[in-house]
Design a protein that fits this description.
Number of helices: 27
Structural class: alpha+beta
Number of strands: 23
Radius of gyration: 34 Å
Strand content: 15-25%
Distance between the termini: 38 Å
Length: 811
């Protein structure tokens, strides 16, 4: 036994390992590239999961924060809160430390002769206190400032302060004109503050108060509410208390509260809950890619150990201990793992940056995607375990080598043990199984995207442009929206190249409308909790033509549907089928908040808030009759034109400015962009899973190629004898191809079971496709089998071309 110092032994092992790896540049390069792909992809995906699923929300004691919803009868759907109900909750609840309400809106900021559109959040005075955050500079608004002074104070974002006032402190005390009102800046929020967490873009926060009229009515449920539980309160206990309060309000206000209750969900679940199954599926996919990486590298190590088996045998015969031989393989594996980890780190840095930029508009908290301490620890642990995984099995094989068999020079057919041969086959089958699992997930998402593409939108997408404006509510009150929209529409229609144009309050695909109950004239009131519900939108007369939405029966809005005329509405097909089955709705009357509405037309259904959601009953009001209906001032002008959008945008802006030079535009986009954005998350997940699947198929194909090549090399003499005894080249090729198909068949059998498990996590992301869709799974199996045949083709052709006498002589 050697008495050399441990340091000398380690140094010698490292020197031998480096020399061995340098002598085999192809082997070393392939292992490093494979390692970097597998570990780098896992690290990048973990950085996404860490930012979204693991890191806590950036608020004080985020586990105490909840989102509060009112439930809508009859199905208990979640919705907004009536301001009067929030007022009662604040007064009666004992489990909440804070309950705060907020609404989003867009406001026009005036800067001399120019105007900008800002994203604003109107929030009750305790909003920031409920979140437990502090301003970067200044303070928050407080009701103690006095009603008028308090109402005219705002808090701005750090980005807003720096862009307009150079410094955060320099913004304090400055005034900003938003709409028709002037506000004083009292606080600046730091750049990291976003609400909800991860959704950036809010420019200003404005105090929200409720008028006596809002607190006396409970028919409009348009408020978002967050709550902070008291330290000793639980979400279950708070929900039970809130349901008790809701039941009390039902008894007091049965006409508007009947059937309504309250539901609480943690703020964290509200922000990232829907993404959790998909991110877990992506983590699983990345882990499977890591597994296939390990098996592929282990296969490469086994092949290399087979090729250097006589070298190991000679070293063993010269006195090298079996443990020393095994240690040498492990040292080489760890050197490769160390170098691969460095490459993986570089790859992960680029991938995380790419995913951060790609996910900002799709994923919550995407801006937090980065390689922090947790991610570095993950990279270290994964690299260590991967190095162990792909080097230990070959090391054990090296330490158990049959010395006599290895020293039989001239017998390459015996240079690989049966155990090594089966190990390589099992690894190749496992790679096929993993590739099939990943391909199944990518295939299902691709099928979903295809279904979305084939889905009937309800309108003709074509050359449509959306001009989104947010009208100043104080300047264009509820009864004055048409005072801006109709003149602007006339000017837009006069722009050369514009074929049709029309206004709508809530753009299809992009957002839900206002949801309210109503009564049908001539019918008895519905049972408690069963009052009919409908989406409400405001449109101008040209809207349906611009969108290409057909009027199924009745008529469109016309000049006679003007202010002071009887209120007319157009309903959609879903509304007609649900509330007037087998009848025509034309001429029927509805009662909404004491106002009588006459149905004059039935329009085709349009997807209202996403391609994966069926249309809801909808009632469309005429913009010309808007007075008294109380809609929010966010409006979309839809323009149909063959002129390219980038060429038409300037003319549209000029038309809006000629109507009101102080009216800013939120954005101009095409309807195709809106549709694409609605499925952007699926497209992102498909790209990630598709990339994983592509790499997995390449690695699995390489694995089968290696096994079948080795199979042929080990049976040169056998093949020569077979051919000498009359075997045809075709039968020899079939024998080799059968080897590849056998490996693929085992992998398919294992992979189909795993595919069902993985794709079940993607269920929430699928549309019109089951996780076990036969067509998708059949296509995936066909791809895997075809890859196996392709990988076996070259070795099979080489075997078929062997000359019998040369094959026998080679032995």
């Amino acid at each position: 036994m050697s008495n050399a110092p441990v340091s000398d032994v380690v140094t010698q092992d490292l020197r031998i390992a480096v020399r061995s790896l340098v002598r085999r540049p192809f082997f070393t390069g392939v292992v490093l590239l494979t390692f970097a792909l597998g570990v780098g992809a896992n690290t990048a995906i973990f950085s996404v999961a860490n930012a979204i699923l693991i890191e806590p929300l950036p608020y004080s004691h985020p586990d105490q924060l909840v989102q509060v919803f009112e439930t809508y009868p009859p199905n208990g759907d979640l919705g907004g809160v009536a301001p009067a109900n929030l007022n009662d909750w604040q007064a009666q609840s004992t489990t909440f430390a804070q309950l705060a309400g907020y609404r989003w809106t867009n406001l026009t900021a005036k800067w001399g002769a120019s105007a900008d559109q800002l994203v604003a959040l109107r929030a009750t005075p305790n909003f920031f206190t409920a979140l437990g955050v502090r301003p970067l500079a200044g303070r928050f608004f407080a009701s103690g400032d006095g009603s008028k002074a308090w109402a005219q104070t705002i808090v701005v974002s750090e980005a807003f302060a720096l862009s307009h006032f150079a410094t955060a402190s320099g913004a304090l005390g400055r005034t900003v004109t938003l709409g028709e009102d002037t506000y004083t800046i009292v606080g600046v929020m730091p750049e990291w503050f976003q609400f909800p967490a991860g959704y950036s873009g809010t420019d200003v926060w404005i105090p929200l108060s409720f008028s006596p009229a809002e607190l006396s009515k409970r028919g409009v449920h348009d408020l978002n509410v967050i709550g902070r539980l008291k330290p000793n309160a639980t979400r279950e206990g708070a929900e039970a208390e809130m349901r008790t309060i809701a039941a009390r309000l039902q008894r007091i206000y049965p006409s508007v509260q009947q059937g309504r209750s309250v539901h609480l969900t943690s703020l964290r679940d509200q922000v990232i809950g829907p993404l959790r199954p998909t991110l877990i599926a992506l983590l699983g996919a990345a882990a499977l890619l890591l597994v296939i990486t390990c098996t592929n590298i282990a296969g490469l190590f086994l092949a290399r150990e087979a090729s250097r088996s006589q070298e190991m045998a000679i070293r063993s015969a010269l006195g090298a201990a079996r443990g020393r031989l095994a240690r040498q393989v492990v040292v080489e594996g760890f050197l490769l793992a160390l170098a691969g980890a460095i490459l993986a780190l570089l790859l992960a840095l680029e991938a995380a940056s790419f995913l951060r930029s790609l996910g900002v508009s799709i994923l919550p908290r995407a801006d937090a995607i980065a390689l922090n301490g947790k991610v570095f620890a993950f990279l270290f642990v994964v690299s260590l375990l991967t190095g162990i995984a792909f080097s230990v099995v070959p090391a054990l094989m090296a330490s158990r080598a049959d010395l006599q068999a290895k020293l039989k020079l001239g017998s390459p057919g015996s240079s690989t043990s049966v155990g090594q041969q089966w190990s390589r086959r099992v690894l190749a089958s496992f790679q096929i199984a993993v590739a099939l699992i990943l391909l199944s997930g990518a295939g299902l998402l691709l099928r979903t995207l295809v279904r979305f593409h084939e889905e009937d939108l309800g309108f003709q997408p074509g050359p449509l442009i959306d001009v989104h404006v947010a009208l100043a509510k104080d300047k264009y009150g509820t009864s004055e929206y048409s005072g801006f929209c109709l003149p602007a529409l006339e000017r837009v229609m006069a722009v050369p190249g514009v074929e049709a144009a029309g206004w709508i309050s809530k753009l299809p695909i992009l957002e839900w409308g206002t949801n309210s109950t109503f009564l049908i004239a001539g019918r008895p009131p519905a049972a408690a909790g069963d009052a009919p519900l409908a989406e409400q939108r405001v449109v101008s007369a040209g809207y349906f033509r611009a969108m290409g939405i057909p009027i199924v029966q009745g008529r469109n809005f016309a000049s006679q549907d003007r202010r002071n005329a009887p209120l007319s509405v157009v309903v959609n097909e879903t509304f007609a089928k649900k509330y007037f089955p087998g009848q025509s709705p034309i001429g029927r009357q509805l009662l909404l908040s004491g106002v009588t509405l006459t149905i004059i037309g039935e329009a085709g259904d349009v997807r209202q808030a996403g391609l994966d959601r069926n249309p809801l009953p909808e009632v469309d009001f005429s913009l010309s009759q808007l007075e008294g209906l109380g809609f929010e001032p966010s409006m979309h002008l839809v323009v149909r034109s063959a002129v390219p959008p980038d060429q038409l945008a300037g003319a549209l802006r000029a038309a809006i400015a000629s109507t009101d030079p102080n009216q800013a535009i939120v954005r101009i986009q095409t309807l195709d962009d809106v549709v694409r954005h609605s499925v952007a998350d699926r497209r992102l997940y498909f790209c990630l899973l598709g990339a994983f699947a592509f790499v997995a198929v390449i690695l699995a194909t390489a694995g089968i190629f290696g096994v079948t090549t080795h199979f042929v090399a080990q049976r040169v003499r056998e093949i020569g004898i077979r051919m000498a005894l009359g075997a045809t080249p075709e039968s020899v090729a079939r024998m080799v191809l059968a080897q590849g198909l056998w490996i693929a068949s085992v992998g398919v059998a294992i992979g189909l079971t795993g595919a069902v498990l993985l794709t079940s996590f993607l269920k929430s992301m699928l549309y019109g496709t089951a996780p076990t869709d036969p067509a998708t799974l059949s296509a995936v199996v066909a791809i895997v089998v075809a890859s196996a045949l392709a990988a076996s083709y070259l070795p099979a052709r080489r075997a078929a071309r062997l000359a019998p006498m040369n094959a026998v002589k080679s032995e």
